[in-house]
């Protein structure tokens, strides 16, 4: 089992430093050209891989041009255009409704506040944070996806289980200037090394700091279950 640093703040700083060295080009992997495309891509990414979303939006963004196109699209047609995406019927409903609200209440523009974004259909705090950070250059929180959730628990940065509570813990210990990049680093490391089912602890740059390192630890702190 690795030995975490004395405080969680020190642990968080070390995690960021090491992962920045390991993934110097870490950034968002969703492809988009404007704020609306970003919003739609993030809605589609819930419980779906970014790779699959990018494959789907390549043709989606060619067919639909702007909020009015999505709002006026027949439900069945838009759902059919998304049928390789998980929960595509629900996501088609969210996208149509969100675009109706954008047209009716925001002059066709994707809003730039947390409150306004989370009032859109299919948009929670995680999605809103992504849109604020990458669409409006506003960083007021940390995006907690499944990778961030898993790594932050394994690394002893939080004991919370739910994303909003995890975000609160992380915002107290991760330097504010690293809030945006912290997510990208966790995603890259979660995909490459610290996977959900079979993490490569032997090849991990954080193993000596990780209290869940499976060479010695009997418990996966992400799940609370034995390795």
UniProtKB/TrEMBL annotation:
Provide the binding site for [4Fe-4S] cluster. Answer: 194, 201, 204, 210
- Alphabetically, which GO biological process terms does the record hold? base-excision repair, AP site formation
Q: Which residues form the HhH-GPD domain?
A: 44-192
| The UniProt record lists the keyword Nucleotidyltransferase | no
EC category:
lyase
Q: Which cofactor does it need?
A: [4Fe-4S] cluster
Q: Which GO terms describe its molecular function?
A: 4 iron, 4 sulfur cluster binding; class I DNA-(apurinic or apyrimidinic site) endonuclease activity; DNA binding; G/T mismatch-specific thymine-DNA glycosylase activity; metal ion binding
User: Pfam families under this entry?
Assistant: EndIII_4Fe-2S, HHH, HhH-GPD
* Reaction it catalyzes: Hydrolyzes mismatched double-stranded DNA and polynucleotides, releasing free thymine; 2'-deoxyribonucleotide-(2'-deoxyribose 5'-phosphate)-2'-deoxyribonucleotide-DNA = a 3'-end 2'-deoxyribonucleotide-(2,3-dehydro-2,3-deoxyribose 5'-phosphate)-DNA + a 5'-end 5'-phospho-2'-deoxyribonucleoside-DNA + H(+)
The note describing how and how many cofactors are bound reads: Binds 1 [4Fe-4S] cluster.
UniProt keywords, alphabetically: 4Fe-4S, DNA damage, DNA repair, DNA-binding, Endonuclease, Glycosidase, Hydrolase, Iron, Iron-sulfur, Lyase, Metal-binding, Nuclease
> What's this protein's function?
DNA repair enzyme that has both DNA N-glycosylase activity and AP-lyase activity. The DNA N-glycosylase activity releases various damaged pyrimidines from DNA by cleaving the N-glycosidic bond, leaving an AP (apurinic/apyrimidinic) site. The AP-lyase activity cleaves the phosphodiester bond 3' to the AP site by a beta-elimination, leaving a 3'-terminal unsaturated sugar and a product with a terminal 5'-phosphate.
The UniProt entry's sequence similarity note says: Belongs to the Nth/MutY family.
Report the protein name in the record. Answer: Endonuclease III
Q: Which organism is it from?
A: Natrinema salaciae
């Amino acid at each position: 089992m690795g030995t975490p640093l004395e405080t969680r703040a020190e642990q968080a700083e070390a995690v960021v430093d090491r992962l920045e060295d390991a993934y110097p080009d870490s950034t968002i992997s969703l492809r988009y050209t404007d704020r609306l495309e970003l919003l739609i891509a993030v809605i589609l990414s819930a419980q779906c891989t970014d790779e699959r979303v990018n494959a789907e939006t390549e043709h989606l963004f060619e067919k639909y041009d702007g909020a009015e196109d999505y709002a006026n699209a027949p439900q069945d047609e838009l759902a059919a255009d998304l049928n390789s995406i998980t929960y595509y019927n629900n996501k088609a409903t969210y996208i149509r409704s969100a675009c109706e609200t954008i047209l009716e209440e925001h002059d066709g523009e994707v809003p730039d506040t947390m409150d306004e974004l989370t009032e859109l259909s299919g948009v929670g705090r995680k999605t809103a944070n992504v849109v604020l950070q990458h669409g409006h250059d506003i960083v007021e929180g940390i995006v907690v996806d499944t990778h961030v959730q898993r790594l932050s628990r394994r690394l002893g940065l939080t004991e919370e289980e739910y994303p909003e509570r995890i975000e609160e813990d992380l915002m107290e210990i991760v330097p504010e200037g690293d809030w945006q990049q912290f997510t990208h680093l966790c995603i890259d490391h979660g995909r490459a090394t610290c996977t959900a089912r079979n993490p490569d602890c032997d090849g991990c740059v954080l193993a000596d700091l990780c209290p869940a390192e499976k060479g010695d630890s009997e418990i996966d702190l992400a799940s609370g279950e034995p390795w």
